[in-house]
Amino acid sequence: MISDKTTDNRRILIIDDNASIHDDFRKILETPKDSGSLDQARAALFGEAPSLPQREDYELDFASQGREGCGMVHSAYGKGRPYALAFVGMRMPPGWDGLETIENLWYVDPTLEIVICTAYSDHPWEDVSRRVGNTDKLLILMKPFNSIEVVQLAHSLTKKWNLACSVKQQIERLESSAQRQTAEWREANDRLQERIAKRMADIEKGVPQGDAAESFREKEEFLAIMSYEVLTSVNELAGTVGLLLDGPLDPGRRAHATTIQRCAHDLLALHTDIHEFMAGPRQEIRAGGRQ
What we know:
Elements: E1 11-15, H1 19-29, H2 35-46, E2 59-63, H3 66-78, E3 85-89, H4 98-108, E4 113-118, H5 125-132, E5 138-142, H6 147-206, H7 212-246, H8 251-290
Parallel strand pairs: 1-2, 1-3, 3-4, 4-5
Helix pairs in contact: 3-4, 6-7, 7-8
């Protein structure tokens, strides 16, 4: 599960059996604790503002084996504080290798962005693609890696994760709104049907036998009012579902939204058919009145 508070998630997990690799990531991605005081001292000595860009504050965690890292991802995901990115070493004897680790990580958290860190060519990209599939959530970083590459990957992929999370939450809110409006429309439709039946019965009781034209006129007037109420609700529903379909949806959710849209269009078509059906009796009554 993903908490709504993860819209600025910079949590990164490094999985590698080499402790010096852990130290390298700390040096590259962690903000030095005394960086603020150094900037102030520089400004005081040279009378200028710091020229270096502000560094991102990443939250780093480390694991020395793939199984350990998978457990950390599982725990973080379950607490609603998932990792946005994992750097994974390719060879980590004696446990899982990088590919097996990645397969298990995505089984636990399919949203995780992953970078493979490797200095070996024993797993060509074709083999990697065959194992994990063609995905935009996996990149390769060759060892020895450049610190600028690591910073750029960390920045870009955590931003990408946060954007995807934000889009997912917006889609879920739209779906919830569409489902709520659909439920409200169904309740309103049920009440409308009851009112129509009651009103029709009252009209039949209040009109003398044989006065068909007057009875039909009152029925037609009442149906016109009800028609307006139905059209307002159905058009609002169709418009909302149209907005939902314009955004990115997975196949299952798109199928549900398409079903709702089709039902709305069917109701609009039924409304048209009813009016055409009523047109026949209207003409007959008018023709009878002219005779």
